[in-house]
Backbone:
C-alpha cells in the first residue's frame, strides 16, 4: 500500500485534516497517511511549493503527495495529477508544483466525477475531491483514469524571485523562515561561481545591515547573538543564530535581500 | 481493525497525546489512531461538541471516537460510551456529545474497572480510562461490557445558542472561529425560510456593524478587505475574508450576533 | 513491527518531521511512527529529558524512541543508542537521556556509517542518521551492530535542579510549564518526609508570593482565580488554576522556586 502525504494550510485546530483522513482510510484502509505540514501560512502557495520540493524525494516510489493550498477552490481552476519518477502529486493547478521540474513528468486534469464525493462543496475540495481521488489511486487506479492527459508545460508556474549571479556578486533573497527562525534563501550552493567555490575566498555577505564574512559548518560554530551563514541540509544558504532565532534578531522575513560580494 | 480518533484539549507540546497512543497500541497493535485535533481551547466543551458532530460521519463504520475535554476529571462525573450508526463515542458525560442527535443511539456508563489501568489518577483519565477502554473495544469487546446501559436522554446536554427564524429575520451567532479566521455561525442552510431560499432575495446581513448584501459561492468571489458571507462545507453560514482573516478584520469572536433581514 | 516514537524541537511548520518519516517508512514500511512532540522549545534538552522520562514506560517492549534536540549537530558529539527494559533510545549524547536511570541499561556509540544516508549533512542528523538507524533497528538489526558498546556512566548527564528536603522544609522548583499552564515542579510525592505524608498536616506552600495551604485532589476542587496545588498524573507536585492557566495568573515559568513548610 502506498504512503499518502498531506501538505495543507488547514491548521491543526479544526476537523478539516481529520475528515480527509477519514475519507481516505474509509476507502483505502491499508493506506499510510503522513502529515508533511498543515501549517503552510494561509493561501501561501509559494511556501507550499518550496516545501514539497524539499520533501518528496525522501519518500519511496509510489507515494502519493496531496498538496492543498487552494485559494481558488470553487472557481474553474483545475485539479491536477502529476506523475514524476514513480511518485504522484495531486494539487490545484495554481503553481504549487512549479518547482518540481518537468523532466519526464506526466500531467492529468482530474475531471472524473465518479471518483469524487457525491456532493461537491465550493470550499472544501480536500474532502470532496483530493481525498477520494488519492484513495482510488492508492487502491491501484491508473493515473490516466482520473482524466485527460495535459501538457506539463501548460500548468501554471509561479513567478520565482530572481537570483543574480556574476563574478562581482550574488544577489538572492529569503524565501522562507523555518521553525527555528532560520532565514532560508534561494541561493543554492551550485549557484556559487568558481570564484566563490575555490576555498571560499574572502567575501562580504550583507543582510539587513548585518555583515557576515564566513560560511560556518554547523550551528555550534556560531557566536551567541551574532548572525551566521551556512548551507543547510538542502544545500541552500541560510542565515542562522546559535541557540536563537535569526528571524527575531534581524527582524528577518520572506523577501529580505541577501548580497554576497568578494572582498577584492 | 477499527480506526480510533482522538479529540482533546491536550495541546501538542506535552507527552499526553503520545502516552494515550502508547497505551492503545500496546493493547491493540493493529489499531489505526487518527488525531482529529488536540487544540480544542482548554475546557471548551462546546467547541469539541461542534467539531465531533462535523467530523464523525466522514469516518467508516466501526470507528471509535475518543473525545476528552474534561474539566471534571477526578470528580464523580460519568464516563460514557455512545453507539450511534455503528460508530462508538467515548467521552466524559459533560455535554460533549449533545449535538450527535439521539436517533436510535445507545448509551453506557463506563464502569468496568477491569478495563482501566491499575492505578487511576485524578487528573489524566485519557491515559487511565479512555485509552485502555478504546483499545479493548478495538479488540472486539462488546459495548455492553463496559458497564450498564443508561438512557441516552439522561446524558448531560449543552445549552445551545438560540436561533430566531421568522419571516422578518434570522438571528444567530458565531459559534466558533476556524484556523483561517472564518466566523462560523449556527445558521444552517435548512433554517432559511422560503422567503430567503427562493432565489436568494435581497437582504441585509449585519455582523459587528458591517453590512453584507449577498451570499457568495466561493472565497475567490470576495473582494479584498471586505467581509463576505457564504455557506461552508457543512452548510452553515460563515463570514469570511478573501485572502485574509475575517476574525481579524472584524475583531470577531464566538458569541457575536449575526442578523439577516429581507430588504422588504 | 515495533513502534518508533519521535521527540524533537523541529516544530510542525516545515518538512523536517515528514522527511524523517519518509526515510523510516521507505526502509521499514510496516513500522508505526508515533509523534510524542515536535514542540520541545528549540535547543531545550532539559524539557526533552523530562518528557521522554514521563512517556517511555507507557509504550510496549521493543519500542524505539528517537529524541532529537541537538544543538551540537555537526560537531563531534556522539550519537548514542541506549537499551533499557527492552526499549531502545536513540539520541545525541547531550544529557537528553540522563533521567532514564542506569539500572541495567546498555549503551552504544552509533558509528556504523553503513546505516546512515550516503551524504551526511552538518545540520540535519534526524534525517541522515537517526531515521535510517531507527529503520534498521525496526527491521531487526541488533543494537551491537550500530557501533561499540560504551559505559552508560560515561554518557553526558544534565545538571539537575536541587531539591532540599528536611523536616522543616521542602524546596524545589518549576521544571516545566505544560499546555494548560500548569506549573510542574520537581517535587515527587515520594520525596515528602513522614511529617508531610501523615494525613497531610497543615503547611504553607509559597510560590511567587502566593500562599497555598492545601493539596487538592482534582482540578475542579480549585477556586476560580486562585492557584491550587495537586499531585499530577506522574506524581509530581504541580500548581494549577481551575479553568485557567496558573502560568498566566502567576507569571510562572521554569526555575520559579516552590517552598513547603509545616506550619508548626
Residues:
Amino acid at each position: 500500500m502506498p504512503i499518502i502525504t498531506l501538505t495543507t494550510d488547514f491548521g491543526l485546530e479544526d476537523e478539516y485534516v481529520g475528515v480527509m483522513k477519514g475519507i481516505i482510510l474509509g476507502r483505502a484502509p491499508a493506506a499510510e497517511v503522513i502529515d508533511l505540514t498543515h501549517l503552510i501560512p494561509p493561501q501561501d502557495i509559494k511556501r507550499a511549493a518550496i516545501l514539497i520540493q524539499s520533501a518528496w524525494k525522501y519518500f519511496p516510489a509510489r507515494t502519493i503527495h496531496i498538496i492543498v493550498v487552494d485559494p481558488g477552490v470553487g472557481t474553474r481552476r483545475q485539479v491536477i495529477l502529476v506523475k514524476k519518477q514513480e511518485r504522484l502529486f495531486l494539487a490545484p493547478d495554481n503553481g504549487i508544483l512549479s518547482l518540481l521540474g518537468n523532466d519526464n513528468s506526466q500531467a492529468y486534469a482530474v475531471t472524473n466525477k465518479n471518483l469524487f464525493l457525491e456532493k461537491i462543496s465550493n470550499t472544501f475540495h480536500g474532502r470532496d475531491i483530493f481525498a477520494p481521488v488519492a484513495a482510488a489511486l492508492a487502491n491501484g487506479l491508473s493515473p490516466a483514469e482520473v482524466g485527460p492527459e495535459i501538457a506539463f508545460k501548460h500548468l501554471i508556474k509561479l513567478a520565482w524571485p530572481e537570483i543574480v549571479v556574476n563574478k562581482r556578486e550574488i544577489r538572492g533573497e529569503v524565501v522562507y523562515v523555518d521553525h527555528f527562525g532560520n532565514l532560508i534563501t534561494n541561493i543554492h550552493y551550485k549557484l556559487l561561481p568558481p570564484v566563490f567555490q575555490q576555498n571560499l575566498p574572502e567575501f562580504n555577505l550583507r543582510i539587513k545591515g548585518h555583515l557576515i564574512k564566513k560560511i560556518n559548518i554547523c550551528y555550534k560554530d556560531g557566536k551567541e547573538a551574532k548572525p551566521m551563514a551556512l548551507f543547510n541540509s538542502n544545500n541552500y544558504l541560510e542565515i542562522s543564530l546559535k541557540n536563537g532565532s535569526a528571524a527575531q534578531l534581524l527582524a528577518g522575513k520572506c523577501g529580505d535581500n541577501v548580497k554576497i560580494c568578494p572582498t577584492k
